[in-house]
Design goal:
With 229 residues, the protein is an alpha/beta fold. The chain is built from seven helices and eleven strands. The protein has a single domain, classed as 3-Layer(aba) Sandwich (Rossmann fold). The chain is 30% helix and 28% strand. The longest helix is centred in the N-terminal third of the chain and has 16 residues.
Length: 229
């Protein structure tokens, strides 16, 4: 089995061999917890080190804003190994009619897969925005249908979920996503005096023995790292 890595210094050793390729991974956290930055960082570092193609679907934030955010972490989609691609698509490029359907959305991704010659990693940012744009009456059935369609591509899929601070759930709609996905990374923020401390935990990862501890998360222009005891 092939694996991808988070490239969060100190965290990958808590994940055994890594994240099984082809997994559906939920990156969950409150506003400002750096979900999008972590997702782009994981995707970028993997296609740089292993070669491959990354599709980033930004359904709320503009491409320019996302690129500025990436630049602060030294993520440059224009600097890639030969034969690797980092493609960013905004909402208006993906969803032409509002509201749309799961079927139309998944078909658009399939079409982009053909254009790119295959996709190794897909980032959907975010599920909150996707649900707003969709005609969806039964979220559990519809999301299962979407996941099944995307699994046919054999891509690793990173799904971003924004939740309230100190929430007991990780998904958006009644925590439907939590039992469908293969893994969950939770980015938590905790008030410490006048500041907010960042923490990260691997809540769930199928097929992998892993720690479920929360670790302090440090971020700078060199990347992410945890403080491990």
């Amino acid at each position: 089995m092939r694996y991808i890595h988070t490239f969060v210094e100190g965290l990958d050793s808590k994940l055994g061999k890594g994240i099984p390729s082809g997994s559906f991974l939920l990156i969950s956290g409150s506003a400002g917890s750096m979900k999008s930055t972590l997702a782009s960082y994981i995707g970028y570092r993997n296609i740089v080190t292993q070669n491959g193609n990354l599709l980033y679907l930004t359904l709320q934030e503009s491409k320019d804003s996302l690129l500025r955010q990436m630049k602060s972490m030294n993520i440059d989609p224009s600097q890639l190994p030969e034969n690797s691609k980092f493609v960013i698509k905004e909402r208006k490029e993906i969803i032409s009619n509002f509201p749309t359907t799961i079927e139309d959305f998944s078909e658009k991704i399939k079409s982009l897969e053909k254009e790119m010659g295959g996709i190794d990693i897909v980032v959907i940012d975010s599920l909150n925005a996707l649900y707003f744009l969709l005609t969806i009456e039964k979220p559990d059935t519809k999301m299962f249908s979407l996941f099944e369609r995307l699994r046919d591509m054999n891509s690793t899929v990173l799904l971003i979920s924004e939740i309230p601070m100190n929430s007991n759930r990780f998904g958006v709609i009644d925590d439907v996503e939590s039992y469908i996905v293969d893994g969950i990374i939770h980015l938590n923020m905790e008030r410490i005096g006048r500041t907010l401390g960042r923490y990260i935990s691997i809540i769930k990862m199928r097929w992998v023995k892993h720690s479920t501890d929360y670790f302090p998360l440090l971020v700078d222009d060199k990347g992410f790292r945890i403080v491990s005891h």
